[in-house]
Amino acid sequence: MRTLPGDPLIMYLSQDDMADFSTEELDKLRHEWGMDRPMAVQYIDWVGGVLHGDLGTSMFTHVTVSSEIIRALPKTLYIGSLAFLLSIIVGVPAGVIAAIRRGGWLDTVVTMFANLGITIPIFWMGILTIYLFGLYLGWLPIQGYTSPLDDFWLSTRKIILPVFCLSIFAVAASARQTRSSMLEVIQQDYIRFAYSKGLPERVVIMRHALKNGLIPVITLKGMHVSMLFGGSVLIETVFNIPGMGRLAVDGVFSLDYAIVQGVILIIAAVVTISNLVVDISYGWFDPRVRYR
Amino acid sequence: MSEKNSIGKDFQEVPLRVSGFKRFNRVFFSRGLVTFGLVIIVAFIIITIFAPQLAPYDPNELDMGSTLLQPSWEHLLGTDALGRDTMSRIIFGARTSLIIVIMALCFGATVGNVLGLIAGYFGGITYAIIMRLIDALMAFPMILLALTVAALLGGGMRNVIVALSIGMLPPYARLMCGQVLTIKENDYITATRSFGASNLRIMLRHIVPNAFPPLIVLITMQVGHVILMEAGLSFLGVGIAPPAAAWGGMVSDGYQYLLKSPILSVAPGFAIMLVVFAFNMIGDGFRDAFDPRLRGKL
Amino acid sequence: MSTILEVKNLKTQFITDGGLVKAVDGISYYVNEKEIIGLVGESGCGKSVSQLSVLQLITNPPGRIVDGEIIFEKQDLLKLDVNSAEMRSIRGGKIAMIFQEPMTSLNPVLTINRQLTEMLELHLNMTSQVARERSIELLKLVGIPEASERIDDYPHQFSGGMRQRAMIAIALSCNPRVLIADEPTTAVDVTIQAQILELMADMVEHFNTSLVLVTHNLGIVARYAHRIYVMYAGRIVESGTSKAIFSNPRHPYTLGLMTSVPRLDEPRKRKLATIKGLPPNLINMPPTCAFLPRCPYAIDRCKQDIWPEMRLIEEQHHISCYADIEKEKNAYI
Q: Using a CB-CB distance cutoff of 8 angstroms, which residues of chain B are in contact with residue C18?
């Protein structure tokens, strides 16, 4: 992070009157913040801090980065998890149905929606839904966030739109991927063998086809975790939700290195954990992977 | 009982052979949507090239007397808060999008391919290092990455392109690496090497051409994604400095006036969607056309 | 010996981009109790499709069974709806099928146990515990070592031959009256082939099941089959007892097949005999005999008349041919 140009101190000071500071005073501030030490030392210092749970302090708000993140992370996780769940509950079955009723009207409808879903810009969708449901119809609140612990009903009403918009891409992509991998699975010999045993269609699909077909979908879901974080950047901006995404954007624009570093670290950690979970769950789905 | 039939008619002893090109066309255009996508893209390209001729107004021309107008015959899509014609801005915005996307793709794909080629070909530590980096890169939400890079390098088209390229290169690296690993084991590579061919020559002449079909599919499928990324970035305010027209930025600008003039946000967003849709469709078309299993589809 | 399965004039077609493919164009055959039938022909002649049609496993689209009757246990199977409970109880329960590729025919994510017990639970209403014990017995029967441990393995942990045996066990688990084996030996090593065939012959005895052996390999039919049907381009061109056909092949195609197999007692320098020409394109077939362009015995009538009907030439021996190759044959061999 710090290897990139842009002197954050200048940025900070430009909030006040830059001209009032003499060079000595600039140097003094630099020293105070520890920015006159060599880059490597600064970084090691930071890492050391992290291991102690201290992510540094934001230069602007003088609030510790950790506290900012602790404030923001749950919101992002809450909305993100709901969107993730939605993509599994809606997207995957849709893809399965489209595959087994290939060419039928259900397939056409699902495919059409799925294809559309991956093309819609998330932020635009957010704005559209705000206009439609918030301003025009006045059904739902359109800004801000309320914790479900405070006021569950209001909280739910507030997050319906963000979750919906965030999930669209994931739902659509899941449906697409599930459909195409199920289509492949259905062509396999073992499915034909299963039918030749006299098993009814429902059993063949649920017991034989599904487990095989979902294997590529798992990879996709793993990628979706990081994608949902990316989406939250936009959604939180549109819906004015003080989550990790917004934190990152604000931090980037004010060149607040500490915040950005902290956010990136946490997001990377979450993504890594979820990738680990994905890798482990492969073993459950595909026994060929299990036995080494 | 004996019917009159074509005596002496020869059987087709040789199965029908359709030329590769014809088959490609047949599969590619088999779906109306794919053709539709192609039409849109051609239109898109034409609009970009002939923007000055096609746009009714100068996209940056202010006209404080006609702000926030609704669509009319004079201004087909209305005007924005500074009196600029929305339609013209959208037309010029197409240029921005196209340039950024093409350049980002070129850089991203090239760098990614080269990295993958090197990693796969030389193996060992090179492979390990490069692949770890790629994995780390890939785990990251692209927009966050692009955002950070672009904002830190400063705004402007050039840096947005760099940012997007970085975010986009992992799939290419992986693809090329995989291709190399598969092909490397083939006997004809060993044979070529025994002729004394240099590594570079082998890489270029043999490995790269084989990777073309999946590469093309990857590129066309990524285009849509890149356009969305770019739009997202300009929506957030990174990238093109005003007053230049960029679709994402237009959506963001229009957000404040949602109640008064929704068209300001709706129109550019719709343009984004249309173009992304078109690219995705032809991406699907390419993928189906190149899929060996769909050959002579039953 | 009573007839348990009779197929009459079965026709199955596929609609493809290139045109209408008449994969099976009117075949008739029958299977008696405790019999082993050989269905012989080269790739693409329609033999696999015909057997899939018996079990109504043809995917529609693009395939369709357009004509024929399949009489089994006094009913016409083709009159049953594809997904009906009746048809499903016949599949696997009364008529079972094993396929060519044991690796891809077994579901990689399910244990062997599961793939066996689901049959038993479905057709014989066994509980899972009973089914499991029965499955272990079955595996032992087909010669899988350490059956009680290996039953919980996954297909990829079995060798090719063992997978084939497992498939046989699955197919026979519910005591079907007919077992259809589609190219059972093509995907296995030569050494395993013999074992598998012996196993199948034993099972036929043991379970009182009839066997339909679909193959292009003349060798195995010669040894095991009681009666043989030779197929070409979707139709049966010669049928008869194994003995009759091998000692006295009368259709030019059958003759060609047999002479193309090199024999140990031939002079070594002789060129490999082949049937000249290529297999026919099943789209837009002219109404004349499909073998015409490749037939060295063709007479004028072959060029003018439609495909010949089957005629009896000796006891239990029919051919679909206008020519009489008896005289020519001696010079040829």
A: 16, 296
